[in-house]
Amino acid sequence: MMDSFVIRDVETRDLAEVLQLLSHLTSAPLLSEEELVHVHNRRISAGVRTRVAVHPTTMRIIGTASLIVEPKFTRGGKSVGHVEDVVTHPDFRGRGVGRDLLRNLVDVARTSGCYKVILDCTDEMVAYYSNAGFRKCENQMRLDIAP
Length: 147
Known about the structure:
Layout: E1 6-9, H1 15-22, H2 33-45, E2 49-54, E3 61-71, E4 79-88, H3 97-111, E5 114-119, H4 126-131
Parallel strand pairs: 4-5
Antiparallel strand pairs: 1-2, 2-3, 3-4
């Protein structure tokens, strides 16, 4: 069993490690330090909240997840939270890292006035997110735009 881990906002010094961690989730081509900082600053300007889970002894980043808060014209101007890029390093899966990151982001969404939190996932991950309190609802549509 692992000691408890710390969840905090991502910092500039974490970016290369976060990008490496995201490669366990999706295609995450390497970016220069300058490019990483530029993207990080754009995300902050857009209001994206990225949290990281940090191992207490090694200070290694073992998980990450992000929340985007979207104010709505409907629902009396309340917001919806969009969870993105949830990933735990393979060596630390099954230890509650992802679950605690999700709980943390749901708390952030709640204090940000969100009336719901949504996320997209593969069919294989439906049970995982159901166990974290989410429920399958409706459908997702996608249009890929060529670079």
